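Q: What structure does this chain adopt?
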Amino acid sequence: MDHIICRNGLFASVDVVHLMKEGTLLASGSRDRYLNILDLNKLEVENPDSIKDAKVLSLNDAHRGWIWSMTSHGDTLLTGSWDTYVSFWDLAAGGTVNQRVKCKSAVLCTNFDQGNVVAGSYDKLVYVIDPRAGIVQERRQHKRPVLCMALDDNYILTGSEDNTISVFDKRAGEVYKTITMEKYPMSMSYGLGQLWVGDKCGQIHLYNARHGQFNIVETYDVGHTGKITDIRHSLGSIITCSTDRTIKILEPSCNPGVITTLAEHTGEVAGIDFQNDVLASACSDVSIGIWRPKCDASVS
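A:
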């Protein structure tokens, strides 16, 4: 794997990274209010100056608060910030803002949902946003800030500082199940009939999500000594990151042993994303980490 640490154009802790376009575009948001987007095809391992050519977009006034969450659909990038706004960026039009929607408090997690956007906020609310009409619904499913979110065609899952995960049934229009945890959830990954949750004490939890069960299978200690700030699972791996400054690659099984630990960062790892064998990390050491398959120089 090629490994690149990007620091150019960063002036504060990076809180979120998001991969788009099959892992060829990387968006990042940081506490200096910068929104940066890189074309990873133009980023060369042996040429640090290539980052200048790789920059697709660099805005120092994307938000008036920390950029905390990102998601995308097609050419639209969505950012959520502590300035209480959700912004829709049209990358096909050079990164112009199509819409800004104001919530009542800091936006901590976001996801696209069949044309709408679902956002979790510091004010304990879950917002449903129509990009054309603004906020169309507010739901109070938690007693503390909403920290993380995942969804599919049937359910919207939100994790909160109130030590619960709320499973909202989209068809019934009501909370279907509430999962209570000993320590509050910081991150979650949902799919393939599984729900993986990382908590504030460094443990990960597996829930059986098949047929709407959402029953606990097992809790694991994989060696993290800080909060699990993000988690991603697929058929090939489970990837976690933590405030202990490490990223762990785990076996995708009911007994996830550690394949390797990445300890290249010198600060807390705030978030990760993984797409098409490309891994990206956001870190408080004012850097972005990128791991990707080595390019075959013999292929033109």
